[in-house]
Amino acid sequence: MSNKKKYILIGVGALILISLLSSIGGGDSEVAEQKPIILKAAQTEIKGDLKGCYELVDKDYKPKYDNIWGYAVNVELKRTSAQLPHDRKEITIFPDSHKSSAKYCAGFGIEILDADGNVIDKKNANATPYSWDEMTAAVQLLPEETTTIKYYFKSLHDAASIRVTSMLMENEERKSATKTESKSESKSESESESKSGSLSGLLKEMTDLSDDEDLKDELKDAEAALEIAGKTMEVAGDMLDLLK
User: What is the pLDDT at residue 60?
Assistant: First the structure.
């Protein structure tokens, strides 16, 4: 092999080596820029209506990035031994309120804080959650049980810690349905009483105006029968209410 060819091969090898070293160095730089985000628990005590009944588990939270949803923050909640301000069987999450007969609605939110404790992003406690099953499991926790709720954020720039919020309120959908049902029942009872009163009054008037003693007796019997029928309807209504 001539010296010229040797020099050419050495030059090509040197270029390849420089390229490899450059790519390795660039990779280290990218890794350094994509340093994992670690969020602390700003406080274990949650804010809002369920304060004292739940707490945020004190640990490091490491969000995972998803190309579609963004950064996923899995918040771990724990039920304390404190008594709930509501019956656990009478609770639903906010998105399910329109189809639930539960008396109360509940939910949990999250606040993202910077290093100075300022809120830079948040998800409200009454907002539609990413997972309805996770939120339902959270509001149904028993004392000392834990569960996780996932929240997504497009960016966590300057994020340093998290804080959990809560909300509990009466199910407005249920209240509205109850009022409508009550008005309907009241109207029905009023119409029934009005009709009964009109028939009874008419019979009495006919009895007073008639000179025929036999007709008077028949009309009185009819009035008595009407009163008995009215009382029977009242008893039947009470029985129906009990069956409901």
Answer: 98
